[in-house]
Amino acid sequence: MEETTPLPARHILGLVVAVFFLLTFTVYYQSLFHPFVRWDDGLLIYDNPAVWAITPATLKRIFTSYDPELYIPLTFLTYQIDFLIGGTNPVIYHLSNLLFHTANAILVAWFTFLLFKQKWIGLACGFLFAVHPLHTEAVAWASARKDVLSTFFFLLTLIGYLRYRSTGRYLKHSLIAYLFALLAKVTVATLPVLLLLLDVLEGRKIDRKALMEKIPFFALSIVFGIIAIFGKSEILQRATLLEKILMSCKSTVFYLEKIIWPTKLSVLYPYVGDIEITNPDFLWPAISVAILILIAFLSLKKSRVFFFGVFFFLITISPTFLNFAKGEMDLYFASDRYAYAGSIGILFLLALGLAHLSKRLPLVALNGGIGALVLLFAWMAHAQSQTWAGTEALFQNVIEHYPDSHVAHNNLGNVYRRQEDITKAIEHFEKAIAIRDHPRTRSNYGAALRKQGKMEEALAQYDRALELDPESKNAHFGLGILYAELGKRGEALLEYQRAIAIDPTYSEVYLNLGALYMQMDQPQEAIEQYQKAIASTPYYAQAHYNLGVAYRKIDKPRQAMESYEKAIRYEPSFVAARINLGIAYYERKRLEDAREQFEIVLLYDPGNQRALSALKQIGVR
Question: pLDDT by residue (tens digit) across 240-251?
Answer without folding.
Answer: 788 888 989 999
